[in-house]
Amino acid sequence: MKDLSLHPCFNEEAKHSQARVHLPVAPKCNIQCNYCNRLYDCCNESRPGVTSSVLMPIQASYYFKALKAKLNNLSVVGIAGPGDPFANPNETLATIELIEKEFPDMIFCLSSNGLDLAPYIDRISQLHVSHVTLTINSFNVKTLAKIYSWVRDGNKIYKGLDAARILLGRQLHCIKKLKERDIIVKINSVVIPGINDQEMEELAMKVASMGADTMNCIPMYPTANTLFENIEEPSKEMMMRIKAQISKYIKPMGHCARCRADAAGLLGHDNVEAMHMVRQFSTMAINKDGWKTRVAVATHDGLNIGLHLGEADELWIYEQTENGYRFVEKRKISLANECDSKWIDLCKKVLFDCQSVLVSGVGPMPITALQNNGIRVIQMKGLIDTGLDIAYSKKPVISLCKTEPFKCGSTCHGDRQGCR
Fold first, then answer.
1. Are 249 and 396 in the same domain?
2. Which domain holds residue 329?
């Protein structure tokens, strides 16, 4: 029997002792909020919708097992993005299935906008998901039309009042259906000054009447390159007033840490090593081609791994023999200008027989392309022989060899054209 009191987000007494992990397996989103910009790969962003890496379900399961071995107080597995779990239902359900099979005592929770959740409620109940958070920002469709640029239902895009009606209708249906399955429901509401801050009391009254268990009012964080970037963050006085208002109807949550989609550790004290680990496991290749035996290296001297993938104009190719490692050849990188084509060409024309590539740094777009083609990306610094040992032994990169996270090479101009 699971002890649900160990969930640090739903039990304030547990937040100092129990750790949680968010697994970033859901990159796609089905709505566009006017306060959200989901660009990731920046360690300085601590807000929902942001992650340093995206994991495949099998990568997430390996990452979780490695993290569980380090954090014996890890009690909760959550999926909260960086998009919406049910815009990515296959990845979300597969991740839960893999972990639940091996760790049935873990508490599982999900955070969704509710648009596409309803068809999967029976399934998540069977998988023993006990907590679901729904983000509902208003009961007024005119207000919602201001908050969302669009809503995608299937292959059709809706805007304005039509989008608001569809989204709100689905959300309310989900509350009812989740409570029928005895799933704990938390309502997240993003407080946007001048937009919905006067509507939180009404929202609390209505969701409470539908059976919601708790409500978390989150101050909007002004984010660059969004329609609401110039709206000021709600004041502490405004948030205290709203908390007092909603507490008349529903239990307010008072210890939200506004977590990232790859958060891990205690609330408000994320584990730094986990940030490195999730990035490393995101490069773990799902290698379906067992005949790929060689390793490519981004190097300028044939001794050290010293180049960012976007800086390299050639890769040195090595293979393992009975007498140690053998240098095979240098392969020029002569690729298309378009980024999408560039990395596909790299896999097919340069790394066609390679199971791994050793680099000092790499961006998320090439990682995805390489990984999808069964090539493990190992980011590290140090001697080539050390990297080859890691590549052929399938071991994780030791901390002394890891590159600093989120840094490009010295010649990177930040224009995101070569290695994004």
1. no
2. 283-401
HSE of 393 in the Cβ direction (CA atoms, 13 Å)?
A: 10
Stated pTM of the model: 0.69
Query: What total of structural domains would you count in the chain?
Result: 2
Which of helix, strand or coil describes residue 79?
strand
- Burial (CB < 10 A; 0-12, 13-18, 19+), residue 103, is middle
List, in sequence order, every beta strand (DSSP E) within 255-344.
Answer: 264-266, 269-270, 294-297, 304-305, 314-321, 324-332
What tens digit of pLDDT does each residue of 218-261 get? 999 888 888 898 899 999 999 999 999 999 999 998 766 567 78
Q: Give the torsion sign (CA, 402, 403, 405, 406).
A: negative
Q: For 38-51, what is the mean pLDDT?
A: 52
Same domain, 75 and 131: yes
23: nearest Cα among 82, 79, 88: 79
Give tens-digit pLDDT for 72-100.
Answer: 888 889 998 888 999 999 899 989 999 99
34 vs 337, which has greater pLDDT? Answer: 34
Phi, psi of 109 (to 5 degrees): -140, 155
Residues 219 and 312 in one domain: no
- Give the three-class secondary structure for 130: strand
Distances (CA, A) of 42 to 51, 260, 281: 8, 11, 17
User: 354-386, pLDDT tens digit by residue?
Assistant: 889 999 988 877 887 888 777 888 988 889 999
CATH number at residue 122: 3.20.20.70
In this structure, what CATH number is given to the domain that contains residue 379? 3.30.420.130
Indicate if 168 and 262 belong to the same structural domain. yes
